[in-house]
Amino acid sequence: MPERQPRPTELPLNDLAAAYIQAGETLFLALHDDVSARVRLVHPEAEYLEVSLGELGEFELYGIWSGSESDGDNCRLLYAPDHGTTEELLDSDGALAMDDIVRDLNRVLSHTFLHRWGVVQPHPRYEYRNHRRWIALTSSDRVAAIAGIVRGHLPDAESLICRFEYDSYGIAVGFEQVALTNGETVDIPCPRCTPDAEGSLWPHDVTHKLAHLLGQLYALPHLRSRHLMPCVDTRSDHEEQMWQLVLPYAATGTGSVDTPSHP
Questions:
Q1: 79 strand-pairing partners
Q2: Which helix (H) or strand (E) is 242 found in, with range?
Q3: Which burial class, exposed, middle or buried, applies to 160 when counting CB atoms under 10 A from its CB (0-12, 13-18, 19+)?
Q4: Which element (helix H / strand E) includes 244?
Q5: DSSP string of 63-95, one letter each residue
Q6: Can you tell me the distance from the alpha carbon of 184 to that of 171, in angstroms, rounded to the nearest whole number?
Q7: Is residue 189 helix, strand or coil?
Q8: How far is the C-alpha of 82 from the C-alpha of 76, rounded, in Å?
Q9: What digits encode the pLDDT tens for the residues 65-118?
Q10: pLDDT in the model for residue 262
Q11: Is the pLDDT of residue 27 over 80?
């Protein structure tokens, strides 16, 4: 039986479907950025939102939490709907903004797009994990957050060279090299090409944190054009376009990417 040839109208469908998913991921990430910024206008220390996600799409906000204190204390509850005051909810323009924030959160969390960016986390308290989640607010300065993580393992790091590829799970990030201030480079073993390589620069969980932040930089066009520079590495085993991120020395961001402590 001869193989069926695709109709001409079928040919663009896969590419268009992939573009639709990519656009949705980027749009919802940008919406989450906007929600994070609006929450921090009222509560600058905010790092997490405590929410419930129902099976039928119903959404409820339970609280706004700070990050872990530097001395190891638990996160602090900054606002809860049942005992917040009107003054706490006023933004810089004097308008009551919480209803808008809840509406936008309900919009982005009703789809799976936002889950791929690592911002939807299990509730830190086991008894709430079946019906509540913690939503990590995006870092106010992703590049500064990346620089802090990388220099925590390589203090002389000057830039990071990596590659990006869209796949069925979102944006896959491949790490190539770290350039040092003395002009030398340190190779980052590729887990797919050299799975038995030893001497990783950082633990596996750090790789996930960096991949989420770098993927977000790449996904948002205004951040990609500002911070990522195309480059070429003739020694690389990969054919994808390489990108260089120059790490800043003055960290201006306050956003944290650490896992929350139990409230």
A1: 64
A2: strand 242-246
A3: buried
A4: strand 242-246
A5: EEEE---TTSPPP-EEE-TTT--TGGGB-TTS-
A6: 28
A7: coil
A8: 16
A9: 998 765 445 788 888 877 544 344 544 444 446 778 878 888 777 777 777 777
A10: 41
A11: yes
Provide the CA 162 distance to its chain's centre, in angstroms: 16
Residue 20: count other Cβ atoms within 10 Å of its Cβ: 10
The token pair at 139 is: 């870092």
Residue labelled with tokens 């040839």: 5
- Interatomic CA distance for residues 154 and 61, integer angstroms: 39
Average pLDDT over residues 241-253: 77
> How many angstroms separate the Cα of 58 from the Cα of each of 111, 127, 134, 163?
12, 20, 16, 38
Q: Which helix (H) or strand (E) holds 229?
A: strand 228-231
Q: 36-45, 64-73, 152-161, 241-250 — which is least confidently predicted?
A: 64-73
- Number of Cβ within 10 Å of residue 158's Cβ equals 20
CB 62 within 8 A of CB 80: yes
**Residue 214 clears pLDDT 90, i.e. is over it:** yes
pTM: 0.78
**3 state DSSP class of 52:** strand
For residue 48, the surrounding DSSP H or E stretch is strand 46-53
- Report the alpha-carbon distance of residue 103 to residue 213 in Å, rounded: 25
